[in-house]
Amino acid sequence: MVEYLSGGRVQGSSTAEANTTVTDDLTSDTDWVSTVTGNGYNATYDRVDFKISCPPDDSSFAGGRVLIDLQDSDWLDGSNLATNFVMRFKWKLTDATLVTSGSETRAYLGFFSDDAWGGTSQDYFGVQVFMNSSQLYPLRVECIDGGTFQGGTETRTDTTLTPVEDTQYYFELKKVGDVHSFTVTTNSDYTGGQTVNVTKTGITNLRYFGVKSRGDSQSANGIIEGYISPDIKLWNNVTSVTEDEKTTITNVPANTRYEETDTRKIYRKVTPTSVTYESDFANNSTGWSTSNARGGFDTTGAWSYNETSTPSNSAKINYDLGSSIDTEFVLRWRMKTASGTKPSNYTYFYLVEQDSLTPTNGTGFVWQGSTNKINIGTQSAEPSSSFTITANTWNYFELVRTSLSTNGIKLYQYTDSNYTSPTLLLTSSGSTTGDERYIQLKSTHNGSVTTKVYVDGIKFYNDATSVSTDEWKERNTA
Questions:
Q1: How many whole angstroms separate alpha carbon 96 and alpha carbon 372?
Q2: 3-state secondary structure 314-366
Q3: Cα pseudo-dihedral 224, 109, 62, 43, rounded to 10
């Protein structure tokens, strides 16, 4: 929990437990349904008991079951579990009486798409407890996609843990997409122990949580008995149960000191760099001038051009920033080509002084596909440095101007839209006047090709030489 201390200090953890979707402390019955004596909500001890056998048929769920409908108003209130979720609870085995007649006994603990017994086809993700006349076997995680229990469609992975009677275990069941994991430990903070996974597609519509018996005619007399105890915690539609607490703080001023208790790191509150203008085109293309038939906004939302005409044709769009920019700026964008012959034309991405195909002053980036060369500088810069843009792969660029003098601009490349770990590509000089007002995208070509070039994800930061998107800076790094 975040603690607000005197002297502008705040303390918290980078691995704190996130808020749950549902927490059931089992101090009251939230409509658990059960059959057969020994199964059900236990009001005396505030727990959920199970006592599972393997009957010959499904009459009155003779093998025993105990379930909660997760659509209950105390749980997900009309919804099934999401694709991603985590549940934690305590589990104890109190009796594992081996089979002396019949074949085997199995108990299925977890999530089900149907409340019917295991002889009915359903989706299932959970933990199986299995024993026969010779032994109790290690716990196993299991998934079934539209099949019966032990019907041949199950996919499972065994742990190495054979549960010991009257030992307190802590279970975590986690689903992230098609990966279903089970962690078992004896540590109350759910650390340590062991984790096993099953990757299985098609596990959907999980609506019920609890314990069921096997669904065929084993007629075994073995018993698997125990209980689930509080708290039962469910995090729905998440992939992790932890969160970095400093990301949840919104009500403190700049320069507040944050002390991370689990790492002993010190941070200070900063104001992220303000973006002057941004556009991903799909959601914001307002204000851009109209291009011609060879260039425009693609169905994907990116600006694109397709050079299929004769020489001396160009495609251009401008955005008017409203006034001349400052000397210092940062311009970010992403760029890619489609498959095919790379264009022999030039692709320009510039800040220019006039709304013109041939502006007097400009500072920016130029690329020629057929030669795999780029450059930065004024509007007359020629591509001269080797750089390959791979087809159908976004390349992320950042142009930074720190001065109007020699070597006042730099071009960086990044691997993704997070813009971390820059690679310096070029250092050069741009406009010496600094009168730019328009963001300009332009292509000029001297041949007929059919490959599209895309530009998107524009962010312009005026009066800045670097960009910080963090709200907290670690001490000695800022």
A1: 70
A2: EEEEEEECCCCCCCCEEEEEEEEECCCCCCCCEEEEEEECCCCCCCCCEEEEE
A3: 80
Amino acid letter for position 183: T
C-alpha span between 161 and 153 (Å, rounded):
24
First to last CA, the chain: 26
Q: What is the pLDDT of residues 437-476, one digit of tens each?
A: 999 888 775 555 556 778 889 999 999 999 988 788 888 8
Regions of the chain with pLDDT less than 50: 293, 307-312
Provide the residue ranges of all domains of the chain, joining segments of one domain with +: 3-16+244-269, 19-240, 277-462
CA–CA gap between residue 259 and residue 371 (Å, rounded): 52
27 sits in the region (left: phi over 0; alpha: psi -120 to 50; else beta) called alpha
- Per the DSSP assignment, residues forming a β-bridge with 362 are 352
Number of neighbours of residue 132 by Cβ within 10 angstroms: 17
Q: Which fold has domain 19-240?
A: Jelly Rolls (2.60.120)
Q: 82, exposed or middle or buried, with CB in 10 Å at 0-12, 13-18, 19+?
A: middle
Q: How many CB atoms lie within 10 A of CB 464?
A: 18
* Cα–Cα nearest to 24, from 87, 112, 91, 92: 87
- What six digits make up the tokens of 77? 């209130």
Measured CA to CA, the distance from residue 77 to residue 87 in angstroms comes to 17
**Listed residue (39, 43, 89) closest to 64, CA to CA:** 39
The CATH code belonging to domain 277-462 is: 2.60.120.200
Q: Strands of 186-290 (E only): list them.
A: 194-199, 208-213, 220-236, 242-243, 257-260, 266-269, 277-279
CB within 8 A of 99, min separation 6: which ones? 105, 131, 132, 133, 220, 221, 222
Q: Which residue carries 């607000």 as its tokens?
A: 4
Say if residues 245 and 233 touch (Cβ distance below 8 Å).
Answer: no
Q: How far apart are CA 344 and CA 368, in angstroms?
A: 6
CB contact at 8 A, 219 and 99: no
Of 201, 206, 194, 191, whose CA–CA distance to 242 is shortest? 191
All residues at 6 or more sequence positions from 6 whose CB lies less than 8 Å from its CB, including other chains: none
Q: Which residues neighbour 152 within 8 Å (Cβ) at sequence distance 6 or greater?
A: none
Asked if 65 and 210 count as a contact pair (C-beta separation under 8 A), the reply is: yes
Same CATH topology for 19-240 and 277-462? yes
Reported residue count of the chain is: 478
Enter the tokens of residue 192.
């340590």
E strands of 133-213, at which residues? 140-147, 155-158, 168-176, 179-185, 194-199, 208-213
* Predicted local distance difference test score (pLDDT) of residue 312: 44
